[in-house]
């Protein structure tokens, strides 16, 4: 009898334990399988979104680079023809009478600025809603080209009057086509940094300005950089908005 009782205890304990633990183990295993089944598609979707976003950023950067190169060639041609900007003869290229590094630098700057504007808008929670159409962007480009042409074409009694006029035109461009805090702040920052870099280049004899009145450059140059930053920023915003709409439709 004692042996039979011991056998009963020996057999019943694991069986009871197994019977009690089986539902919990099954539930955990089922949950793990469900989590794996859900996480795999989500991970695939995240990877796809990242690839799509990277592709859109590369495309936007290339478009902005091309726009910057084109604007640099056209606008620098106006400055050279009016003898506002003078390059050394050995630094001149045949295409549009411009130094070869000017379009590359302007294209790179346009890509950086154009990609930075929508990023700052998202960071500040200030989406681009004012005049959201390509027609407005094209008009902004036309006004910017007009401001640059005025800097080389108009003749005033002194440079102060010309600088004040271009400053008013640049602010008018921002008010007409932007009206955002981020656009104004980035425009001021770009104007300051670009003017500083230009001062360094002129100081080192890379090129020069005729009749400099603001250290080594012309006093109206920050106005050109400000309006250029606002213009390129609007192009970048419009490209980002078009890419976002395309991604949403896809």
UniProtKB/TrEMBL annotation:
UniProt keywords, alphabetically: Cholesterol metabolism, Endoplasmic reticulum, Lipid metabolism, Lipid-binding, Membrane, Steroid metabolism, Sterol metabolism, Transmembrane, Transmembrane helix
GO molecular function: lipid binding
Subcellular compartments: Endoplasmic reticulum membrane
One GO BP annotation of this record: SREBP signaling pathway
Pfam family, one: INSIG
Annotated membrane topology: Multi-pass membrane protein
Recorded GO CC terms: SREBP-SCAP-Insig complex
Transmembrane residue ranges: 24-45, 57-78, 98-120, 156-177, 184-203, 215-236
Family as reported in the entry's similarity comment: Belongs to the INSIG family.
Role played: Mediates feedback control of cholesterol synthesis.
Identification of the protein by name: Insulin-induced gene protein
Originating species: Paramormyrops kingsleyae
């Amino acid at each position: 009898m004692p042996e039979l009782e011991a056998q009963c205890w020996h057999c019943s304990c694991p069986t009871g334990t197994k019977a009690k633990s089986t539902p919990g183990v099954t539930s955990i295993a089922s949950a793990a399988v469900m989590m794996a089944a859900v996480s795999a598609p989500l991970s695939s979707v995240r990877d796809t979104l990242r690839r799509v976003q990277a592709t859109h950023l590369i495309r936007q950067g290339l478009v902005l680079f091309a726009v910057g190169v084109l604007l640099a060639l056209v606008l620098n041609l106006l400055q050279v023809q009016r003898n506002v900007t003078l390059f050394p003869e050995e630094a001149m290229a045949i295409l549009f009478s411009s130094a070869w590094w000017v379009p590359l630098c302007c294209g790179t700057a346009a890509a950086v600025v154009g990609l930075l504007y929508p990023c700052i808008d998202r960071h500040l929670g200030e989406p681009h809603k004012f005049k959201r159409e390509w027609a407005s962007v094209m008009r902004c480009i036309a006004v910017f080209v007009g401001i640059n042409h005025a800097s080389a074409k108009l003749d005033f009694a002194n440079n102060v009057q010309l600088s004040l006029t271009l400053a008013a035109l640049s602010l008018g461009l921002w008010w007409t086509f932007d009206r955002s805090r981020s656009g104004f702040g980035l425009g001021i920052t770009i104007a300051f940094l670009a003017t500083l870099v230009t001062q360094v280049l002129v100081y080192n004899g890379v090129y020069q300005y005729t009749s400099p009145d603001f250290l080594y450059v012309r006093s109206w140059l920050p106005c050109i950089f400000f309006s250029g930053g606002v213009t390129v920023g609007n192009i970048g915003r419009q490209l980002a908005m078009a890419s976002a709409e395309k991604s949403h439709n896809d």
